[in-house]
Amino acid sequence: MVLDLLTLTAIPTAVGAAEAVHQQRVLDEDAETPERRAPFHIHVFCDAQSRKRDEVHDTIVVLRDSKLYLWPKDPKSKRPAKDPDDGSTPHPFTGFFLPFPSHDLPHRPIPAPPVLGLVSTIPPNPHVAKSRHAKLKLNWVYADRKTREVKYGPRAEAREHVIGPWDWTEDEEGLTLGDEETLVAVEEEKGGHGWAVYWDNDDDRLKEFEVGQKKRVLRCSLERRVVHDDKEKPTDE
C-alpha cells in the first residue's frame, strides 16, 4: 500500500495527540491521589504579636453564611463549640482537594496540570427534613475576586472567582492558595466569633482592598487535620 503525503504528515500529529492525552491522564491521576482525597478539618495556628491572638490561635474553621470563619473549639471534642447565642454548633470545614473540572476552565492547553480545587461539605438546609440516608452535599471553596473573602458555593458560582490552585505546604499540613501560604484572619465583628478567612495574595494586609485600614488583620496558618472518623467523611456526588 502506498501512503500519500497527507497521510504521512498526519501520523506525527496523531501520535502527538495520543501522547498529550496520556500525559494529561497521568497529571489528572496525580492530582487525585488518596492522600489528596482524604477528608480533613482546618485548625488555625497564629503566633502574631497581638492582644487579639488568643481569639484566633487554636480555633477551627467553620462554614456559615456562604463564608469561612474561625470558631472556638470545644476543649474536649476539639470540634466547634456551641454558639453562645443560640446553642447551635457551626458546621466545621470537612473537605478535600479535587481538580476543578477542566471544561469550566477555557483556554487550557493539553496537557496541563489540573487546577487543584478545594471542596467541603456544607451546612444542612434547616428547612429540609433530615434523613440518615441523605448524602452530604459538597461546595467549592474560592476567593472572591473583588473582596478576597474566602467563600463556598456551587461550581457555577465558584468558577467566576479564584478557585485555585489550592495545595498543601511541604510538610503536607499548611493550606496554600496560589502556591503561597497567604491566608489571613480578618476581624469583621468584635467579640471573638467574627473572624473570617481572607486571601492576602500580595501579603500586604489587603491594602488594595482597604481591609487593613478598617479591620484588624492577623497572619495565621490554616492547618489540615485528617478526619479519622468514618462517620464524618463527606460523599462526593
Gross morphology is globular
**Counted beta strands:** 14
Order of neighbouring strands in the sheet with most strands: 5-6-7-8
Tally of contiguous helical segments: 3
User: What structural class is derived from the secondary structure elements?
Assistant: alpha+beta
Poorly predicted runs are: 13-17, 19-24, 232-237
Keywords: Signal
Overview of the molecule:
This protein has helices at residues 5-31, 53-56, 155-158; strands at residues 40-45, 60-64, 67-71, 91-92, 95-99, 116-121, 138-143, 150-153, 166-168, 175-177, 183-189, 194-199, 217-219, 221-226. The protein is α+β, with helices and mostly antiparallel strands and 237 residues long. It has one domain. The strands form 5 sheets. Strands 5-6-7-8 form a 4-stranded antiparallel sheet. Strands 3-2-4 form a 3-stranded antiparallel sheet, with no helix packed on it. A 3-stranded antiparallel sheet has the order 12-11-13. A hairpin with a 4-residue loop joins strand 11 and strand 12. The model is unreliable at 13-17, 19-24 and 232-237 (pLDDT under 50). Residues 1-20 form the signal peptide.
